[in-house]
């Protein structure tokens, strides 16, 4: 998860280089707006060197100095595929799969259970507080904020004692005044592994997979190209032009009035698409240099898209992506897509230390 914050909220010395190497995977992202005169920062939450054992450490990245520092207060629990959003200067971490270590018959084991818990981070006091839980347990869902209201859309939950998970079409929203979750209008179909973005106070949902699947069937599922639009004022779901590529576990990001769809899992190419809401049309853009999945991405105020971590396929094996990628530049040139320079790679690997 990635967002912006004020520099004084970081507890470690940003000028002190980190020395331990690290690998971050399974990141999702969010941009936390600057709340003062301090430079904007990007926070990375979750992920880790193992996809099965997410980290609790929170890292802060300064786009100007291109350095990382650690926050003193990590996540209170280990979560896989949660959602994150920011309202009123607070960070909310919502749902996901909670990963716990247990002891069964004298042997260590790891249990995974879909959660409906919601945690709120207060940067003033560097502390986490558990608030009202969602009405449903959700993982691989999306979370959006429209006019200070948090919307949790779709997702899936794991059936107890089975290897199957059930996708849902339900939508719920969090009332900041009452501190309670309420039911919203469900999507036209069940979905999980989809992506969403907010543009002009409306929610766009793309891709994903409907239906129920066992974990052994993951690679055989069919992803969707469909795009749905949630009109917050009219409170109805409407269809929009589909993407040209069926996508699952991908990312959507907004910049300069457009929506950008970045690649997800099981995609043979690295193509990026741009959606124009005025013409209801998708256009293919220059692809990323390296295909990856389970990465984190964030749209900066200048219109750049930053991509952190994730995994990619190499010689039939999953390997960790260490090299961040920037897509675009000030003024946003959609044909510019590059890796950071090698000296930055070193600082990233050192700065994103885990342990």
From TrEMBL:
Q: Which SUPFAM superfamilies match?
A: Kelch motif
Name the UniProt key words of this record, in alphabetical order. Kelch repeat
Q: Name one Pfam family in it.
A: Kelch_KLHDC2_KLHL20_DRC7
- Fetch the SMART domains from UniProt: Kelch
- Name of the protein in question: Uncharacterized protein
Q: What is the lineage of its organism?
A: Eukaryota, Metazoa, Chordata, Craniata, Vertebrata
């Amino acid at each position: 998860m990635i967002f912006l914050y004020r520099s004084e909220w970081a507890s470690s010395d940003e000028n002190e280089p980190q020395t331990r190497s690290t690998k971050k995977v399974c990141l999702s992202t969010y941009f936390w707006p600057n709340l003062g005169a301090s430079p904007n920062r990007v926070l990375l939450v979750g992920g880790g060197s193992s996809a099965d054992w997410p980290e609790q450490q929170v890292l802060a990245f300064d786009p100007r100095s291109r350095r990382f520092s650690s926050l003193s207060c990590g996540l209170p629990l280990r979560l896989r595929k949660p959602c994150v959003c920011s309202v009123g200067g607070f960070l909310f971490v919502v749902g996901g799969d909670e990963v716990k270590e247990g002891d069964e018959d004298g042997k260590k084991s790891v249990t995974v259970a879909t959660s409906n818990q919601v945690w709120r981070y207060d940067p003033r006091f560097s502390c986490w507080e558990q608030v009202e839980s969602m009405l449903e347990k959700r993982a691989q869902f999306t979370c959006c904020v429209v006019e200070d209201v948090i919307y949790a859309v779709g997702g899936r939950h794991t059936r107890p004692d089975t290897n199957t998970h059930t996708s849902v079409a339900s939508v719920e929203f969090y009332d900041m005044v009452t501190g309670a979750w309420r039911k919203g209008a469900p999507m036209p179909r069940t979905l999980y592994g989809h992506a969403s973005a907010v543009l002009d106070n409306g929610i766009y949902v793309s891709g994903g997979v409907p239906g129920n699947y066992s974990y052994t069937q993951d690679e055989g599922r069919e992803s969707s190209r469909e795009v749905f639009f949630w009109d917050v004022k009219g409170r109805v779901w409407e269809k929009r032009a589909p993407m040209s590529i069926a996508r699952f576990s991908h990312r959507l990001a907004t910049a300069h009035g457009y929506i950008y769809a970045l690649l997800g899992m099981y995609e043979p190419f690295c193509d990026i698409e741009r959606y124009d809401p005025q013409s209801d049309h998708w256009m293919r853009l220059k692809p990323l240099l390296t295909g990856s999945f389970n990465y984190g991405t964030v749209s900066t105020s200048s219109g750049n898209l930053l991509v952190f971590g994730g995994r990619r396929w190499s010689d039939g094996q999953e390997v960790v992506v260490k090299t961040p990628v920037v897509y675009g530049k000030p003024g946003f040139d959609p044909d510019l897509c590059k890796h950071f320079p090698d000296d930055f790679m070193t600082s990233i690997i050192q700065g994103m230390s885990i342990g």
